[in-house]
Amino acid sequence: MFLVTLLWSFNFITSKVAMRQWNPVLLTGWRTTLALLICLPLYWRERPHPWDWSMFWRFVGLGTLGMAANQLFFAMGVKRTSVAHGALIVGLTPLFVYLLSCAVGQEHFRPRKLIGMGLALAGISVLQAKSSVGASLVGDALVLLGCLTFTVFTVFSKPLSGKLSPIGTVTLNFLGAVVFLAPATITLSLDFPFRQLLPISWLCLLFMAAVPSVFCFLLYYRVLKQMPASKLTTFTYLQPVMASTMAIPLLGEAMSVGLLAGGLMILAGVYLTERF
Q1: Which of 89, 117, 183, 266 could share a disulfide with 123, CB 3.0–4.6 Å?
Q2: Model confidence over 47-99: pLDDT tens digits?
Q3: How far apart are the C-alpha atoms of 137 and 267, rounded to whole Å?
Q4: Mean pLDDT of the chain
Q5: Whole-angstrom Cα distance, residue 200 to residue 208?
């Protein structure tokens, strides 16, 4: 999970660079399509045990939510906000996963955790009180929507984590995402100036499809079989630190007092929530 978190943190940098030329909706469509094409040979080589149609639609539905909606909101949000803000918003994911896990009966609610949750939400308020350069409320809100979709995806994937192999699960997930995004992907591709894309933009697309999407989700599903959903996402609180640290030298983002204070409050709140 540390490796997954490191690669997902670097994905903030890659996405920010890709958004300089790509349309966020089109990028998500191509990213999920390439990810599916990478998965298919691995799927047929492994020949995972058969599934019924009920299971098929559940995995496809979760893929539409976790692979399509999540990545779409993420791409649109990162384009409109700073890497540091986006990563800190993503750092709230463990809190959302815990609350939803309690709501559906996967875990027991502990009132003491409200202290940590309150501190984390206060950190978000501080973060928004004085925006960093390149950050916006709209961008942060879009990233937050991505977190919420990933929360639902994580919690409802937990009961299904042992039904199929990781490659079988990821392949069906991306199939749902590709079908959901196909109308927008085809329509936007007709008029998009692909010849104007720089090599770095294509490299970003390939990296995002192969590494944060396929490789990381294969590892994520393997770990999901062995750990509670809320404990699994505690690694998410490392993303703000990793992504912000990378963004300073690679993208030239600055560290403000408001960003530092809000970030520390969010991380402390997430940490206390997990400790309690």
Answers
A1: 266
A2: 666 667 777 888 888 888 888 898 899 889 888 888 777 777 877 777 788 88
A3: 20
A4: 83
A5: 12
Cα→Cα distances 27→16, 159, 205, 249, 267, Å:
12, 31, 7, 25, 30
Look up residue 136 and give its amino acid.
Answer: S
Instruction: Please give the single-letter amino acid code of residue 184.
Output: A
Cβ atoms 164, 172 nearer than 8 A: yes
Instruction: Look at the block and give the residue holding tokens 């983002």.
Output: 253
CB 258 within 8 A of CB 222: no
- What is the dihedral sign for C-alpha 165, 237, 213, 53? positive
Token pair belonging to 248: 């300073």
Contact 246, 10 (CB under 8 A): yes
Is residue 221 a contact partner of residue 59, using CB atoms and an 8 Å limit? no
pTM, two decimals, is 0.79
Please state, in angstroms and rounded to a whole number, the distance separating the CA atoms of residues 79 and 29. Answer: 16
